[in-house]
Amino acid sequence: MLISEIGEVQLIKCLTEDVSLDPELVVTGIGDDAAAIKHPGDKLQLITKDILVEGIHFLREGISPWQLGRKSLAVNISDIAAMGGVPRHLLTAVAVPSDTECGLVKEIYRGIKGLCREHSINLIGGDTVRSPQGITISITLLGEVEPEQLLLRSGAREGHLLAVTGCLGASAAGLELLLQGYPFQQEWEEEVLKSHLEPPVRLKESRMLSESGAVTSMIDLSDGLQKDIGEICQASEVGARIFADKLPISDATRKACRYLKIHEVSLAFIGGEDYELLFSFPPERLSWMKDLWQRERGENLEVIGTIVSKEEGLKIVDSRGGEITLSRKGFVHF
Amino acid sequence: MLISEIGEVQLIKCLTEDVSLDPELVVTGIGDDAAAIKHPGDKLQLITKDILVEGIHFLREGISPWQLGRKSLAVNISDIAAMGGVPRHLLTAVAVPSDTECGLVKEIYRGIKGLCREHSINLIGGDTVRSPQGITISITLLGEVEPEQLLLRSGAREGHLLAVTGCLGASAAGLELLLQGYPFQQEWEEEVLKSHLEPPVRLKESRMLSESGAVTSMIDLSDGLQKDIGEICQASEVGARIFADKLPISDATRKACRYLKIHEVSLAFIGGEDYELLFSFPPERLSWMKDLWQRERGENLEVIGTIVSKEEGLKIVDSRGGEITLSRKGFVHF
Questions:
Q1: Which of A69, A113, B7, B193 could form a disulfide with A108 if both were Cys (CB 3.0 to 4.6 A apart)?
Q2: Residue B98 in contact with residue B92, Cβ under 8 Å?
Q3: Residues of B whose CB is below 8 A from A152
Q4: ipTM of this model?
Q5: Would you identify the CATH topology of the domain A3-148?
Q6: Which residues pair with A123 in a beta bridge?
Q7: Could you tell me the CA-to-CA distances from B226 to A199, B76, B316 in Å, in that order?
Q8: pTM reported for the whole predicted model
């Protein structure tokens, strides 16, 4: 059945019929001129919004509608996580051509609503409209955080250490495989493709970090480590030194890099859409942080870099401390 | 200068450089992963979101970029006003082709920011991205309202009276003129065109009505009186009887209707995008409401209809109480 056949009212009804809302927080959700919610006055409210356009941010043949819906929300949850907060309320706006199959829009919403259920997010409003061509999705996500646990990009200071919540480069490897085709269908292919199409949601890690009181700055890795650490450097007015040999790279990513003939460190440093959290903390909290990581995640916390003065700028260095520059094929020593 | 020449970072900088935020409310605005704001815990928060697509909601040649920006925000302010609230914070997402002139995007933002300044709205975030073709604008507007002053669609009861905050049909007449061309450039043309391109912002009236304690339901007229009163009827489980000869229609709209050969009552009843507020109140508050209207607006409050039982449905009646149905050319008596 096409959207043009059932109409907007019927479509919205069908998309929202299984939405359940927290009556303690939501006074009125979908169905009035605006949503009305209660917000605890002692917490800060977090708000993030983005817009994803077919042909620019995704290709319809490269991602399933369910994955597209899930990912649209996941990347916004990542923004709330990067502030140390928890997501609470969601508004979605979707523009689709009227000759689109209803099933496709339902699948997008199934991806969105699944993640809502997983993280107790209330779908409280939005807009569903026609577009002349192509799908556009805009997400607005509201969250909250205790004022003392808000984590900004601007708190990194010289000497602070840098770490990340997971492996780097897998999503970029997945995207590259998608663009080139992926002939073998081996386990490593599946793994990097999944990293790209179903990015992680680091809410548990975010709360652990914001509640630790040790973290001084945080950002989520959407544009790639190089660009995103640059954002922390700019906001904190510092520089950073990244240790090339300490970047966490999964075996699957290494295998994908060998197949794609891309240097793995380049991919980990430059590739985007990891949606891991990058954070800084003072060196005196290192052993405490390592204990926390071991206890909560059963993993070794790797320090991937250190904050230096603004004058030193942003550098990536090899194991002997020599500065390197990266190209697609590998790195070039000065 | 094209957007492709200056890039996203420079564009955002240029669009947001003159944004000033209320430091009492905004902890962090544009520039981190999410915005962080303080919200007074004793008020409800209102949130509305929509998405406007070129070729569906507007034609680039029919509206100036400044008007497009202003209207995108105005129609969302109207949603907040319809709940009895005041707008506080705005997030905008704009998708534009990379061969778009920067000046055009700046003009859209000038329209948005002008209205922000007028109503003390903080522009706290958003997204600016490329699109393969056409402009898409998504607005998220946050507002607030005292819990006891929240006005829903669901409070209308049998016997309640209906009124609107201004004239009807002008915007639809303006749209019709735009589509047909408007050869005379007379005063009445300018007036109805302006109603369509620069819709009213009824915040003052909204506050007056929500603070009056007399209003039982309210909605903003975006889809036309017929459809929007239908929303109140559905939410309140009632019917309504609209008095055709009491619908407020401006002289300019009457002149436009004569030129366009459309019946003015049809236009006022069916035409969309008036962005006036439609509200109900109990009959015992009528003289009080009339006094309020006279005192605050220097105008006579006209009762345009009455709420009846659900079984009676929605009807429009002539001065003798006879039911009429409307067509483009006029009305047909049963």
A1: A69
A2: no
A3: 28, 32
A4: 0.92
A5: 60s Ribosomal Protein L30; Chain: A; (3.30.1330)
A6: A90
A7: 46, 20, 9
A8: 0.94
Q: Average pLDDT for consecutive 10-residue bins of chain B (334 residues)?
A: 85 86 90 91 94 94 96 98 97 94 95 96 92 95 96 97 97 92 84 96 96 97 95 96 96 95 92 96 97 94 97 92 72 45
Give the angle A251-A257-A260 at the CA atoms, nearest 5°: 145
Domain ranges (residues) in chain A:
3-148, 153-333
Going by the DSSP 8-state scheme, the letter that residue B58 receives in this structure is: B
- Residue B62 makes CB contacts below 8 A (sequence gap 6+) with B178
Tell me the fold of A153-333. Phosphoribosyl-aminoimidazole Synthetase; Chain A, domain 2 (3.90.650)
Topology alike, domains B3-148 and B153-333? no
> Are A225 and A169 within 8 A, CB to CB?
no
The reply to whether residue A50 touches residue B93, judged by beta carbons under 8 angstroms, is yes
Distance in angstroms (rounded) separating the CA atoms of residues A268 and A170: 8
Query: Tokens at residue B44, please?
Result: 């409800």
Residue A111, token pair as written in the block: 């991806």
For residue A130, the number of C-alpha atoms closer than 13 Å in the C-beta half-sphere is 15
Residue B28 with chain A: CB contacts under 8 Å: 152
CB contact under 8 Å between A129 and B51, yes or no, is yes
The 10 Å Cβ neighbour count of residue B322 is 11
Reference A94, options A48, A47, A54, A37; nearest CA is A54
Tell me the three state secondary structure of residue B224. coil
